[in-house]
Amino acid sequence: MKTKTETHTQPVEQKLRTGADLFIQSLVEEKVDTVFGYPGGAVLPIYDALYRAEAPFQHILCRHEQGLIHAAEGYARVTGKPGVVIATSGPGATNLITGITDAMMDSLPVVVFTGQVSTAVIGSDAFQEADVIGLTTPITKHNYQVTDIKDLPRIIKAAFHIASTGRPGPVVVDIPKNIAQEITDQTFDTTFSLPGYQPTIKPNPLQIRRLAEALAKAKRPVLLAGAGVHFADASEELMAFAEKYELPVTTTLLGLGSFPGGHELALGMGGMHGSYSANMAIYEADLLINIGARFDDRLTGAIQHFAPDATVAHIDIDPAEIGKNIETKIPVVADAKEALHGLLEIDIDCADHSSWTATAMDNKAHYPFWFERSDDLISPQWLIESIYRETDGHAIVTTDVGQHQMWAAQFYQFDKPHKWVTSGGLGTMGFGLPAAIGAQLGRPEETVVAIVGDGGFQMTMQEMAVLKQYNLPVKVIIVNNEALGMVRQWQEKFYEERYSSSLMTENPDFIKLAEGFGVKGIRVSKEMDVPRAIKEVFSHDGPVLVDARVQKLDKVFPMVAPGKGNHEMIGVKRCEE
Amino acid sequence: MRRIITATVQNSSGVLNRITGMLSKRAFNIESITVGTTEVEGISKMTFVVEISDTNKIEQLTKQLNKQIDVLKVNDITDKAIVQRELALIKVTSTSASRAEIQGVIEPFRARVLDVSRDSLVIEVTGRPDKIEALIDLLQPYGIKDMTRTGVTAFPRGKQPRQIQEFTMSI
Prior knowledge:
The complex is a heterodimer. Chain A is built from 24 helices and 20 strands. Chain A is of the alpha/beta class. Chain A has three domains: 15-184, Rossmann fold (3-Layer(aba) Sandwich), CATH 3.40.50; 205-366, TPP-binding domain (Rossmann fold, 3-Layer(aba) Sandwich), CATH 3.40.50; 380-549, Rossmann fold. Chain A has a six-stranded parallel beta sheet with strand order 3-2-4-5-7-6, with helices on both faces. In chain A, helix 17 (380-390) crosses helix 18 (403-411). In chain A, 55% of the residues are buried. Mean pLDDT of chain A is 96; it is low at 1-12. Chain B is built from four helices and nine strands, in the order E-H-E-E-H-E-E-H-E-E-H-E-E. Chain B is elongated. Chain B starts with a strand and ends in a 15-residue tail after the last strand. The model of chain B is unreliable at 166-171 (pLDDT under 50). Chains A and B meet through strand 6 and strand 14 of A and helix 1 and helix 2 of B. Chain B: Pfam families: ACT_AHAS_ss, ALS_ss_C. Chain B: It catalyses: 2 pyruvate + H(+) = (2S)-2-acetolactate + CO2. Chain B: Dimer of large and small chains. Chain B: This is Acetolactate synthase small subunit. Chain B: One of its GO terms (biological process) is isoleucine biosynthetic process.
């Protein structure tokens, strides 16, 4: 009799599911392995379903919603898979705004689920109500509010599709509490139709031919590789193309690693703090082939001086980026990998440009990034070089924004793709630590180093608790110059040394702070102690926080002053071998 | 220059907000927007009139519109043979003395009087924006008490003359 009852009730119980159960099931169907979340009133039904489902994927509890979203970005950047976030309504959602914008600017696939007050009270200024759709419309690739439980599985499926295809980007799904609570015995159709969203993947053969013809004629060709090469996983094709025609390669900040930094054709990063060889190659080029970069102003400097003599070809999956900032003669709307495939299929009879390539190589040899060692205080650039050497250049490196970010870009040579996690477009302080958490969870087997500033670290330092809780062996290196270094640098250069609010005179004791979080802390203040400290950091199994006291007045060079062309960069030094 | 752009969109909630948000975020100068349903259920048509400085910006506008997930089709129809119409309601001060005179003014415009009160007339006029402007100019001396305009809605004509320059993306 007892068994009979069980068999009778069991199927019924299984069939009756809440919206929250459907939500969990949808995530499982999307093969989500990690969710960054923070519970709250409006997502209680979702958290209850998560509890009942017995951890179908790992849930990482950050300590602030900004931590969630940056962690999801870090995860997405290194894995290429969408980062998933759950936050509650109102403040939970608004705390995500910075990170969603960051993901939008840097085209990161992130799917964000926000709780919402029940549909019956939406619009009544209910407790913890915020207009999430209104707030996130300008900063998302797309967003949805679920108003009927039958739409929930379909919307989630569409959200993952939109976030991760074409030019990736953040998608927000706002789920009212009553939808998550609603009980249903139905299975809903998940077929979605997006007739207005059909990214162009394959290039137009005509434009590929035009590009090949331009390359055949070019005497001073140069490639510019952006983050699009990473997203398309096109590094091999890029290398094959560059090597086939001996084309010098420059990259954007976010394109670092898409072409091996140590390759002989690599000129490094161009732009405001880019290398002399990269900037001069772009300035003097007669053909600039942009692959998946968006001609951001930090790259171009004053537009009228950017590649003034060049025919510009631009390969981008987002047609709206082509011709937006720089006049483009040869537009190729395509996935970078497909476009490069198209180009590699043709054998182009190139004009001789060997002397041009040789000049670029010569510039690279004679005008490297430089810095001055000190006998006493740590040179930040040398600190980063030391980290590079200790990790054999294989670590995943995350940063905040500012001087340490530029030094990391200049002195940590990225030879592999998907290793560089930085906030490019939005320039978000506090990005580095949570992004490292996401990167480490996405790539548990790899060494993850968060290079952060003393200012940026203090914006999200609460996430240290996450390192301890999940025993993530992230190495956090605070490049501590007791200042908001880049702000201070600009004040020195352009505001006659009026250091308005940029000196961090009362920093906390970072070592005690680390210990408070249960994380090993190491302070290093002298250049001579760096090698030993770095050894100690990387031989430690768990998380480490390093307070590296660097020279306070160091500046990032070379530098293109605002309003100037890249060829007018200052702080370039010739170095004789 | 003044451009007329139409967009066919999926009628989802928030689509208008998304589009107007994009326009303001990217600093496009919108003169008018009209939105209405079409013959297909769930599909709406928008007509934008924008004041734009150069062709580059027009291309950027159409591309940014196209990029929206809910936008199905974008057309810059300015240089096509089109029909364009706008409707205006104009409340004009009138006395029994001026009523007939106003009637005479509006007649060539094929405008109609919708409402008459002791001291005002409500006039409805439909046509190209320049025709509406002209009528407004003529009515101004009588005293316009209130006015509302719908903004332009437009359509390509059934038959297009040859050699029409089109702003399509060459990609």
